[in-house]
Amino acid sequence: MIKVLIVEDSKVIQEFLVHILTSDPAIQVVGVANNGEEAIEAAKKKRPDVITMDIHMPRVDGFEATRAIMESAPTPIVIVTGSLRAKELASSFRAMEAGALAVVLRPPGIGHPEHETAAGELIRTVKLMSEIKVVGRHPAVKRRAPPPTAKMEVRKTNVQIQAIAIGASTGGPPVLQQILSGFPRNLPVPVLMVQHIASGFTKGFVEWLSSTSHFPVHIALHGEYPLPGHGYIAPDGFHLGIGNGPRIVLSDHAPENGLRPSVAYLFRSVAQTLGPRAAGVLLTGMGRDGAAELKEMKDRGAVTIVQDEESSIIFGMPGEAVALNAHTYILPPGKIASLLRTLTMDAIKFQNEA
Fold first, then answer.
1. What residues have CB less than 8 Å from 62, skipping those under 6 apart?
2. 71 and 139 Cβ atoms separated by less than 8 Å
3. Helices (H), the chain
């Protein structure tokens, strides 16, 4: 049985969520907390496998509760929001920075045409997140400086990179935010990104990325020319790729690895169109989406990077890539940003000096 703690201040919604979750025989609701303060204590006492977390609550909100739980009783947390308004979404993604693993939209009421689908998505997410072993986060005042690491050797190249392609899944939003924050506004290439995220959250995710990283990010449009120093996210329900020009290509072709958008489609498109004139990055995530296609990028001469296991919430996708020897580098997020900055900026400098 998967033990779930529900955190929600509305009694009506509490009962609604209990009804949905217990409809699956593999799930047991072991407690309900009315606010973040109760949630912190319940997480310690009941030791649930997963917590569903509301954001806006009295006394202690969902963000503070998530932060405290990840410090005192690390547990997979799924943010369940009832709104797609910008303020709600910003708070949800902020909670993901604090350690929450996923965000889903609360299902509409029974009888609504989308109820069954949305309820199924909530159950599926809870069950998937229960399999993840999260690591505690220490308060900032207690953090120690990381140990010194050897200086990274960057492979010099006279090939000018024309685009960066990044794929991410579970745990990806804060990592993407960290990487984009490490880019200068004059980055000489566009950044194409696929992030596995629940349908309906892409617009808010893009707005959150732009505002917190100070790197302009957009929902990709079919046929547009991607601009240097800008990021492009695949829209809901469409694969993202790149074609000659280079121009952005959106496709509603069948899902790959059960996903649309898929990282596999993006990486394969970039490999075939740009070959060695690209960099590919595979970040934290469950499954194997994009691993074989990152190997294709490497085989065609591209620089390929996977997130290291220590910093990954789930080492599934990057781990599969490592097993295939699809990587040129294995790095934590901060060093990924630094390497990409070096590769793109130095290539321009090298060509200007040649």
1. 7, 36, 53, 54, 55, 56, 79, 91, 95
2. yes
3. 11-21, 36-46, 62-72, 86-97, 115-129, 172-181, 202-213, 263-274, 291-299, 316-323, 333-353
Residue 144 has pLDDT above 50, yes or no: no
pLDDT digits (tens, 9 = 90+) for 297-308: 999 999 999 999
Question: For residue range 104-127, what is the model confidence (pLDDT) as tens digits?
Answer: 999 999 999 999 999 999 999 999
In b/e form, how buried is each residue of 44-57, taking b as 16+ CB within 10 angstroms?
eebebbbbbbbbeb
pLDDT, mean of residues 22-45: 97
253: phi then psi, degrees, rounded to nearest 5:
-60, 165
Token pair listed for 102:
């996923």
What does DSSP say about strands 191-195 and 163-168: parallel, antiparallel, or unpaired? parallel
Distant-in-sequence contacts of 102-107, Cβ < 8 A, 24+ apart: 102/78, 102/129, 102/170, 102/198, 103/78, 103/79, 103/197, 103/198, 103/201, 104/78, 104/79, 104/80, 104/198, 105/80, 105/81, 105/198, 105/200, 105/201, 106/13, 106/17, 106/80, 106/81, 106/82, 107/20
pTM of the model as a whole: 0.90
Which residues carry out catalysis? Answer: 169, 196, 289
Q: Could you give all domains of the chain from N- to C-terminal order, each with its CATH number?
A: 2-136 (3.40.50.2300), 163-353 (3.40.50.180)
Over the range 148-187, which residues count as b (16 or more CB within 10 Å of their CB) and which as e?
A: eeeeeeeeeeebebbbbbbbbbbbbbbbbbbbbebbeeeb
Q: What does the alpha-carbon distance between residue 304 and residue 288 come to, in Å, rounded to a whole number? A: 16
